[in-house]
Amino acid sequence: MVKPYLFLFTGTSGSGRKTAAHKALQGSGIAHIPSCTDRPLRDKERPDMDYRYVSKEQFDQLAAEGFFTESVRIDRHRYGIGKRYLDLALHAGNSAYLILNREGSDTIRKLYGDRAIRIFLYVDKKTVSERLESKGTSFEIINSYLDHYSEEVTYRKYCEHIIENVTIEETVMQIKAIISSYLQAN
Ligand SMILES: Nc1nc2c(ncn2[C@@H]2O[C@H](COP(=O)(O)OP(=O)(O)O)[C@@H](O)[C@H]2O)c(=O)[nH]1
Ligand SMILES: Nc1ncnc2c1ncn2[C@@H]1O[C@H](COP(=O)(O)OP(=O)(O)O)[C@@H](O)[C@H]1O
To answer: Where in the numbering of this chain does the Guanylate kinase-like domain appear (predicted)?
Structure first.
């Protein structure tokens, strides 16, 4: 039986983790485990695609009940992975993928060892700004991404795979190749 893996997409914010991961893995049978967040839904986001959106009170309640395997506060908002969703996927023997910052990736790697494969995506700061500006992203969000850039980018040396996301087609191909290498090795 294929060992179930957790593929962790991490890297600098705005590097294209969500876009590339969803594109590479749609229809693959490897399910996305969305995080819960208390941040508001942004323009063009759809509930349950990228996040499960909850109120601040609900997030507090879930955290108090021990619902999260890991959670973080980033600026004014909180993010967390529900233990139940991870267990459901792994107990069924299915690999899954998550999109996390470095703290979340580190925690999941410590908990799941070599079943957790970290794929680090990055682009340079100028490219982050240009891509997000061209999509009409607010300056508040762009600035918050850039503020975290230096601390996030250093995490790449700990990751199993590193991809510079230049063109989306090439990045998707690289992700597919990495994932196949694990699934075929079993
Ligand atoms: N540790 C952890 N990080 C998360 C989780 N969900 C999202 N993140 C990361 O939190 C960071 C902040 O996200 P945000 O600024 O809202 O930007 P987004 O990446 O466009 O959603 C991003 O690096 C996310 O990948 C989670 O459940 N746990
Ligand atoms: N290779 C690429 N070339 C151009 N734009 C890209 C590429 N990859 C992602 N993008 C765009 O960059 C922006 C940030 O991508 P996103 O997936 O939200 O990043 P992250 O999840 O890492 O914060 C989005 O507008 C996305 O469409």
So the answer is: 4-180
Residue 116 CA, ligand 2 centroid: distance in Å: 23
Give the chain's domain count: 1
Predicted TM-score of the model (pTM) = 0.96
Look at residues 18, 23, 14 and name the one whose alpha carbon lies nearest to residue 35. 18
Nearest C-alpha to atom 17 of ligand 2 is from which residue?
16
Looking at this predicted complex, what is its ipTM? 0.94
CA distance 122 to 10: 9
Tell me, in angstroms, the distance from the centre of ligand 1 to residue 79's CA. 6
Ligand 2 pocket check: which of 19, 50, 74, 129 to mutate, most ligand atoms within 8 Å of Cβ? 19
**Segments forming the whole domain that contains residue 102:** 6-185
Q: Is residue 1 part of a domain?
A: no
Q: What is the pLDDT of residues 159-179, one digit of tens each?
A: 999 999 999 999 999 999 999
